[in-house]
Amino acid sequence: MPRADTQHDARQAPGLFVTLEGGEGAGKSVQAEALTSRLEAAGRAVCRTREPGGTPLGERLRDIALGLASDAHTANLDPLSETLLFITARAELVQTVIAPALARGDVVVCDRFGDSTVAYQGYGHSVDIDTIRELNAIATGALAPALTVLLDLPPADGLARANGDRSPDRFEGEELDFHERVRAGYRELASREPGRWLVVDALQPVEAVTDAIWRRLEPMLTPATERASP
Ligand code: Z5A
Known about the structure:
Elements: H1 4-11, E1 16-22, H2 28-41, E2 46-50, H3 56-65, H4 79-104, E3 107-111, H5 114-124, H6 129-140, E4 147-152, H7 155-165, H8 176-192, E5 197-201, H9 206-217, H10 224-228
Parallel strand pairs: 1-3, 1-4, 2-3, 4-5
Helix pairs in contact: 1-4, 2-9, 3-4, 4-6, 5-6, 5-8
């Protein structure tokens, strides 16, 4: 059952909720930054956040889920436990960061959200997808993004980009097959709900990717004068 408090705050709120999804190295962080700049230049207040993370608890859970924590026994979490960690972090992020920002009228730009759990733990690790959807709904008060951008590219290209930046975490160390399942899962999700998703070829240069997102996002921005009126 959705959490009534979050539902009231976030689903009816004046802000705009945008999420970025995709595989490793797809360019989510780079695009989150570029979109934040464009949105601010357009006069919109932006709350930029990420999953897992975005709150002190979320950052600690991130270290555990990604196998970066110093206690080695968390390095081999089973998929259901892993799912519940991401869900816990999401519940707190929505309550303490996303819902208040949407209530203020901000554009929230979130690097990964509930679709990551469906793609990675569901399609990637075979956790039951209906269960994940239900857990997502409970954790978020059934909050759904107005726009979800899938930055799509072959996993080998994304992993090469990501691994160029730092040493691989637990997910980046998975077999290529796993990342192919995640990609196929994302594409299926996007094809089922084209009104919410925008699929962008992430092999394009950074600015071309930003332009493609902006073409879809800009018309969704309500002018400040309209937002201020009763
Ligand atoms: N996970 C999960 O399993 N379940 C869940 O519910 C959630 C998450 C929420 C998060 O780790 C991990 O958690 C993730 C899924 C799992 N798996 N992994 N690994 P993360 O946050 O550390 O990883 P990430 O989200 O994949 O971030 P990333 O690897 O940093 O990728 P990115 O943000 O999409 O890419 P980037 O940092 O913007 O760019 C990477 C590099 O590519 C960088 O050098 C850029 O300069 C370059 N780049 C970016 N765009 C371009 C273009 N267009 N051309 C050329 N080069 C580019």
